[in-house]
User: Which sequence fits this backbone?
C-alpha cells in the first residue's frame, strides 16, 4: 500500500449500489484495524458544509467532544478537522458528491501525512471523479447482469426457498425488466414478497414493470412507483409523510412514529397500542425496501432510518400530486395541509406568514438549523396537530405560552428549557 494520500472515486448512476459498496469498505474489519481514524458522511446535492464538518469531527473525536464546538464557525471547524487528522492514518468516506466546488472547498482540510490515508468518494458525475483524482483508475459500478439480477430478486423474494415452477418465467422477466438496477430490483422484490404467489397477480405486476420501462427518462421512478401503487391503504400516508424529511436525513423512529400517531394515520384493533401498531407500519415499509435502516443500537434495535434519494424523489412527487404535503421550494398548491421546510432558501421572506393558504395546515416541520423566529406565524395555525421546531434555534429557548392556545396540537418538538404543567409532552 502506498504511503501517499490516495483518492478512491466510486462512480455510477443513482440506485446502482455506490453507497452500499462504500459502506462495506467502511465497515470491513481489516479496514477498522488498519486505520487510526475513520469518518463517513453524506454530502448530497444541497449540502450544508457546517453539518458535514460536524459529522466528520464527531466520527473522529466523539460526540461529547464534538458538542463543545457547536458554536464555532465553519473556518474554525475546518481547522479542527485538519488538526485532528494530522499525523494519523485515516480513511474518510464522502458519499454522494455532486459538485467539484464542494470537493475543492473541503479537500485542503485532509492532510497528506504520508501514512497511507485514503479518501473514498461516491458520485454520479464523472467530471467530479476526474476532478478529484485524474491519475488513478476510477471504480465504475456496473449494472447487474441478468443472472445477477435473478439471483438478487430470488434472495429478496424467497430467500433460501425454491421458486415455484409456475412463477419462474414471469419472475425472470421481471428481474430482466428492472434493467440491472439494484434499487429497482430491491423495491420490486419487496413488493413481490408481499403479494399472493399467484401467476395472474405476478403477471399484472410484470406488465406494469414493462410499461414503466418505456418511460426510461424517468430513471426508474415509474418502476419504483409500482410499490407505492400496491401499498395497503393504511401505509400510503405513512410513506408519503417521508417526503417531509430532507435528503439523506437520519430519521429518529420514535419521533416519526409519534408524528404518525398525532396525524391520525395509525389505527389499533385493541390488541396493540398505537405506538406498537405504528412500529409495525414502519417495519412493513422496511420489508418492502421503501425505507432503510442506517444504524442500530447496542441491543440490535433499529436506531435510525432514511430513504434513498430516488425513492424520496418519488415520495415528494406523489405527495405533491395528491396535495398531501408541501415541501419548501416546490410549487404552492391551493390548500396546504402539511408543510416541511428543510432548505434555508427563501427563509428570509414572509411567504408563509402572509399566505392565507396556511390556514388549514395541520403539520408544520422546520427541519433546518435556523435562527428565524417563525412562532408568530405558527400561533395562527389553529388546526395544527404536529409542530416540529427542534432545529429553529441551536440553543434552548423559553417556552412560548401562546402554544397553549393550539388546542388541536398532539405533537410538539422544540428546544424549550422546560414545559408548563399542562399535560403537554
Assistant:
Amino acid at each position: 500500500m502506498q504511503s501517499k494520500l490516495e483518492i478512491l472515486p466510486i462512480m455510477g448512476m443513482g440506485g446502482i449500489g455506490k453507497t452500499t459498496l462504500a459502506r462495506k469498505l467502511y465497515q470491513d474489519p481489516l479496514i477498522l484495524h488498519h486505520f487510526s481514524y475513520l469518518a463517513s458522511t453524506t454530502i448530497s446535492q444541497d449540502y450544508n458544509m457546517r453539518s458535514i464538518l460536524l459529522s466528520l469531527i464527531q466520527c473522529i473525536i466523539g460526540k461529547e467532544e464534538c458538542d463543545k464546538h457547536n458554536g464555532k464557525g465553519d473556518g474554525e471547524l475546518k481547522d479542527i478537522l485538519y488538526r485532528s487528522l494530522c499525523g494519523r492514518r485515516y480513511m474518510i468516506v464522502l458519499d454522494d458528491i455532486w459538485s467539484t466546488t464542494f470537493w475543492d472547498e473541503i479537500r485542503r482540510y485532509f492532510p497528506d501525512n504520508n501514512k497511507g490515508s485514503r479518501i473514498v468518494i461516491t458520485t454520479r458525475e464523472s467530471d467530479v471523479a476526474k476532478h478529484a483524482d485524474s491519475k488513478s483508475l476510477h471504480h465504475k459500478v456496473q449494472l447487474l447482469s441478468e443472472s445477477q439480477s435473478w439471483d438478487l430478486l430470488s434472495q429478496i423474494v424467497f430467500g433460501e426457498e425454491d421458486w415455484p415452477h409456475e412463477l419462474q418465467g414471469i419472475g425472470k422477466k421481471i428481474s430482466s425488466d428492472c434493467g440491472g438496477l439494484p434499487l429497482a430490483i430491491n423495491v420490486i422484490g419487496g413488493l413481490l414478497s408481499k403479494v399472493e404467489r399467484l401467476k395472474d397477480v405476478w403477471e399484472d405486476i410484470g406488465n406494469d414493470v414493462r410499461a414503466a420501462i418505456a418511460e426510461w427518462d424517468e430513471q426508474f421512478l415509474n418502476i419504483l412507483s409500482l410499490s407505492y401503487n400496491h401499498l395497503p391503504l393504511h401505509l400510503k400516508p405513512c410513506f408519503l409523510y417521508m417526503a417531509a424529511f430532507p435528503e439523506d436525513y437520519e430519521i429518529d423512529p420514535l419521533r416519526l412514529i409519534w408524528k404518525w400517531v398525532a396525524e391520525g394515520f395509525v389505527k389499533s384493533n385493541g390488541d396493540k397500542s398505537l405506538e406498537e401498531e405504528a412500529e409495525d407500519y414502519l417495519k412493513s415499509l422496511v420489508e418492502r425496501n421503501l425505507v432503510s435502516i442506517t444504524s442500530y443500537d447496542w441491543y440490535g434495535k433499529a436506531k435510525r432510518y432514511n430513504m434513498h434519494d430516488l425513492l424520496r424523489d418519488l415520495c415528494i412527487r406523489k405527495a405533491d400530486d395528491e396535495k398531501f404535503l408541501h415541501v419548501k421550494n416546490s410549487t404552492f398548491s391551493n390548500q396546504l395541509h402539511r408543510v416541511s421546510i428543510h432548505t434555508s432558501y427563501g427563509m428570509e421572506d414572509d411567504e408563509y406568514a402572509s399566505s392565507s393558504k396556511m390556514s388549514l395546515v395541520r403539520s408544520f416541520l422546520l427541519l433546518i438549523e435556523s435562527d428565524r423566529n417563525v412562532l408568530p406565524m405558527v400561533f395562527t395555525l389553529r388546526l395544527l396537530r404536529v409542530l416540529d421546531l427542534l432545529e429553529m434555534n441551536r440553543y434552548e429557548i423559553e417556552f412560548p405560552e401562546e402554544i397553549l392556545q393550539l388546542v388541536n396540537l398532539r405533537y410538539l418538538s422544540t428546544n424549550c428549557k422546560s414545559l408548563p404543567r399542562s399535560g403537554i409532552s
